[in-house]
Write a structure and sequence with these properties.
Blueprint lengths: L1 H22 L2 E12 L16 E14 L4 E14 L2 H9 L7 E7 L2 E16 L2 E15 L3 E7 L6 E5 L3 E16 L4 E25 L5 E23 L1
Antiparallel strand pairs: 1-2, 1-11, 2-3, 3-5, 4-7, 5-6, 6-9, 7-8, 8-10, 9-10, 10-11
Length: about 240
Amino acid sequence: MRLNFCLKALCLTLCLPLLTQAQEKNAVSFSGGYSLPLGKFASEQFSDPEAGLAGSGIFAQLRYEHKIGRWWGLRLSGNLNINQTNPDPLIEQYSILLPDPETYSWESTVTQWRLGAILAGPMAYVSLGNIELKGHVQAGYVFAKSPGVTLMGTSTTGLNSVDAGLPGASTQAFGYGAGGALRFRLSEHLRFQITGDWIGANTELKDVPTYVKLGDRPPFEGFIDSKRFVTVLNVGLGLVVVF
């Protein structure tokens, strides 16, 4: 009897973690950290119509995951990125057109790039004791708001002051992403994670108004269309709740 009881207790002890793991098919996680623009989205060549003039920023991501099989599942995520904007290439572009550009001083007001994304797709994972590796690919919609820029240039000569403006514009496009996570078990239902995600989309901004006024001359007003391949790499830390 005692031997039989000990064998049952040992079996229960060994199987309990497996049973618990099998029941933990859902997870909700949050992460945040550093956002790095890539490719032409980070380009500062104003002569390039696809240059995004984007700088580094921050991101936040909320995810829901559901395990279907032993090695894979489905994932739904919502992302928010805020990236800085560099106005210097705009100033350089306007300076080329000015007489005596070295006499000008500039003031600029610039807003930020704002990107949102709702993505879904399959994920794969491998458990190594208290460590778990995850990888995923996703597709969905990316929402982008370009920065607004206001420039004021003043010459020491007192002539030909510059007033230029470009408002922010919003668009949305089909997007996709990929990434992975390294997770460490903190307790039965809590994990710590290190995440890396790449998100990209071909966006198009249409009929964005522009305004330039030089000295006492009549202002020049027009509309521009531009395409941007918006792409960022997000690296961050976060927590996971499994249930």
